[in-house]
Design a protein that fits this description.
By secondary structure, the chain is mostly helical. It has 4 helices and no strands. It is about 65% helix and about 0% strand.
Length: about 70
């Protein structure tokens, strides 16, 4: 009877357990943020600044929104 409850919990929370399993391997959670340095053209930077001014969103959120699943 307990095994059935455990299986149900594992099935309902599959994404959480996968994230924790991945954390054990990489020490990173999928929703953590990490700063990186990238090189962009001036044209691209200006486009991002225009979108930022228009939407009020930070540039990082603009970039992330383009890669959402």
């Amino acid at each position: 009877m307990q095994l059935g409850k455990i299986k149900k919990i594992l099935k309902e929370n599959k994404e959480v357990f996968e994230a924790l399993e991945n954390y054990d391997k990489t020490k990173q959670l999928p929703f953590q943020r990490k700063r990186i340095d990238i090189t962009l053209s001036v044209k691209t930077i200006n486009k991002l600044k225009k979108i930022k001014k228009k939407t009020g969103k930070p540039i990082s959120q603009i970039i992330e929104s383009k890669f959402k699943d």
